[in-house]
Amino acid sequence: MRLVVDANILVAALLKDSTTRELLLEEDLELFAPESLLAGID
Fold first, then answer.
1. What is the dihedral of CA 7, 9, 1, 31, to 10 degrees?
2. Domain containing 19: what range?
3. Does this model's pTM top 0.70?
């Protein structure tokens, strides 16, 4: 599965147990994100 994420999605997945978290933990998941994502997390 391919999924495009942003900082809001990643933070939400870390904060609570949810369907979003389950999707992000899938083994066959390929994540796509803007390069600025890491800058927003730092």
1. 10
2. 2-41
3. no
pLDDT string in tens for the chain (42-residue length):
898 988 888 888 889 999 989 988 899 999 888 888 777 666
Q: Which residues contact 10 (CB under 8 A, 6 or more apart)?
A: 24, 37, 41
* Counts of helices then strands in the chain (DSSP H, E): 3, 2
Sequence-ordered list of residues with C-beta below 8 angstroms from that of 30, at least 6 positions apart, any chain: 1, 2, 3
Give 3-state DSSP helix, strand, coil % of the chain, rounded to 5. 50, 15, 35
The structural domain count of the chain equals 1
